[in-house]
Structures are given as structure tokens and as C-alpha cells.
Design brief:
Elements lengths: L1 H13 L18 E3 L2 H9 L6 E3 L24 H7 L3 E5 L5 H9 L4 E4 L4 H15 L2 H21 L6 E5 L14 H8 L2 E3 L13 H7 L3 E5 L17 H5 L2 E4 L1 H5 L5 H23 L2
Parallel strand pairs: 1-2, 1-3, 3-4, 5-6, 5-7, 7-8
Length: 288
């Protein structure tokens, strides 16, 4: 399910999607909010504004109470009849994923639509504070953002001085996608003392070739648990890849790594643990 969400997000990135809009200070607070992406649902709960939430998108399954709310659509379609019945005074959309034509249509229908950016780690704390302003939960949002920022800094400090290591993050195997340096996953790799081998690419979630991975020869391969136990099986055809020689294949918790929310701290902790083990494996291989 999380892999389907990731692929939907990738497809959305490849289409014409909502553009960042100026976000002036909220002049009013909103009482009936609908979120059109699962990560935005989580952010509403993270800032203590759950009482404002009247509808959500498909796959909004965390925290558990979100599963009880009416579903109004997914990454590409909106059930306009159900949306009308909910009478929202604010729609939150995912800047990088909600198609531009969907946003335009919603605004034409008279809805107030706010695009929330969640590409980077900084975006997560900024988004929480902005959502807090929109829903009248400024203090809770500031506190949640501070906890998140401090958590990222703690991870970074814990890895200070760790030897660098090159990393390939596999979003999906077929088609083969990764992330560039602007993506929060790449930032987590850097926080953990690693180096994303595709950080230089221009697209946020670019399609790549197998040959490009082999040429850049990463020391570590990462993916989410949605890839399954055989998530790296296809790479066995290249035994000389450093990640294969070192045995450095690691799966990260799917829901935590797939959504730009405070749960990225758990994903980051798992990633840092994996990269620490990867360094040990590299050192052991060097002595053989």
C-alpha cells in the first residue's frame, strides 16, 4: 500500500502539479479541514488540530483515528459529491503531488485551497507551523516543529565524525526510481553521514537506468520494507557492486520513510543504524 502511494507520488511529480504559492500570515482560522494527501492528515494530528479534520484522502491510516474519517479521493481524483456534503472551509493539498488541474478545479468551485510543501526536512517543520496558524493551533505547532528539528539535530550530532559512505536509495525497482539531493530521504542520508549517489540529478524523484547505478557503484543499497525480502534480488547479477560485496542491503520502515511527517525521525534512526552497520561490513571486507 505504501509502495502504491510512493508510485502515485512519483507519477504526480512527472505531471503538471501545483506550484508553490505565496503563503501570507493566516488572516483567519479554519474549522472544517479536508486533507488530500496522507502526510497532510498526519500533520494535522501532529499539531493537535484533529478536531478540525472532517475528511481525508485514501491511504490516510495514521494515526488510527484517521481511518474513521470520510475519504474524499486519492492523489488524482476527488469525489466532489462527498466533498460538497462535508462542507469544508479549507482544503490542504500536497504541493509536490496534487495535480495542478485538480487544484484549479477545486478553486473554480469556490473552495479555499492551501498547497503545503513537504520536500525537505525543513519543510516538515515549516508545514506544521503553517498548518498550526491555519487551524488556530500555533503553540502546539511550534512545539511540534521544535521537537522535530531537535530530533533531526540529535541524529546529526550522533553521526558526527562517522566515515562517509555512498548510498543508493531505491524508491521502486520496476520502474527504477530514486531521489535527488533535494528530497528529504537524501537529506536523511546526509544526516546519517552518507552520500546519495544521485544527489546531482535535477528531478526530485528521477527514473534511472540499471547501468547508471552500476556505474556509480554504491557501497550501500536502501529501500523501504514494501520492497520485500527480495527487494534487491535483481542486483545480484552484478556481484562486483560494492554494496553486494559488503552485504550492505537494508530495508527501512515503509510508512515512516514514505511520508514527510514527524515519523521521519524514526526512519532516520533506522537509516543511521543501517549505515553504521554498513561501515562495519565495509571495514570487515577490507581485511579479507
Amino acid at each position: 500500500m505504501t509502495r502504491a502511494l510512493l508510485l502515485a507520488g512519483i507519477a504526480a511529480l512527472l505531471c503538471g502539479c501545483s506550484q508553490p504559492a505565496d503563503q501570507p500570515p493566516a488572516a483567519q482560522t479554519y474549522q472544517r479541514v479536508v486533507t488530500l494527501a496522507p502526510n497532510l492528515t498526519e500533520l494535522i494530528y501532529a499539531v493537535g488540530a484533529a478536531e478540525t479534520l472532517v475528511g481525508v484522502s485514501a491511504w490516510s491510516d495514521y494515526p488510527p483515528p484517521a481511518r474513521q474519517l470520510p475519504v474524499v479521493g486519492d492523489a488524482f481524483t476527488v469525489d466532489h459529491e462527498r466533498l460538497l456534503l462535508l462542507q469544508p472551509d479549507l482544503l490542504l493539498v500536497w504541493e509536490s503531488g496534487t495535480p495542478a488541474h485538480t487544484i484549479e478545479k477545486l478553486r473554480e468551485l469556490g473552495y479555499t485551497v492551501e498547497a503545503i510543501r513537504t520536500r525537505s526536512l525543513t519543510d516538515v517543520s515549516t508545514a506544521m507551523q503553517h498548518i498550526g496558524q491555519l487551524t488556530g493551533h500555533d503553540r502546539e505547532a511550534r512545539d511540534a516543529a521544535t521537537v522535530f528539528d531537535n530530533g533531526v539535530q540529535s541524529l546529526r550530532q550522533a553521526q558526527a565524525g562517522s566515515a562517509g559512505i555512498s548510498v543508493f536509495y531505491q524508491v521502486s525497482a520496476r520502474p527504477l526510481y530514486t531521489v535527488n539531493g533535494e528530497h528529504y530521504v537524501s537529506e536523511l542520508i546526509e544526516v546519517c553521514g552518507g552520500h546519495n549517489i544521485f544527489e546531482d540529478l535535477s528531478d526530485l524523484a528521477p527514473a534511472i537506468s540499471v547501468e547508471a547505478v552500476v556505474e556509480r557503484n554504491p557501497e550501500v543499497m536502501l529501500a523501504s520494507t514494501d520492497a520485500g525480502a527480495d527487494g534487491f534480488a535483481e542486483w545480484e547479477r552484478w556481484p562486483e557492486l560494492r554494496a553486494n560485496r559488503y552485504g550492505n542491503h537494508y530495508l527501512l520502515p515503509a510508512d515512516e520513510i514514505a511520508r514527510a511527517t514527524p515519523r521521519l525521525l524514526a526512519a532516520g534512526a533506522a537509516m543511521c543504524t543501517a549505515l553504521q552497520q554498513a561501515r562495519k561490513n565495509r571495514a570487515a571486507a577490507a581485511t579479507q
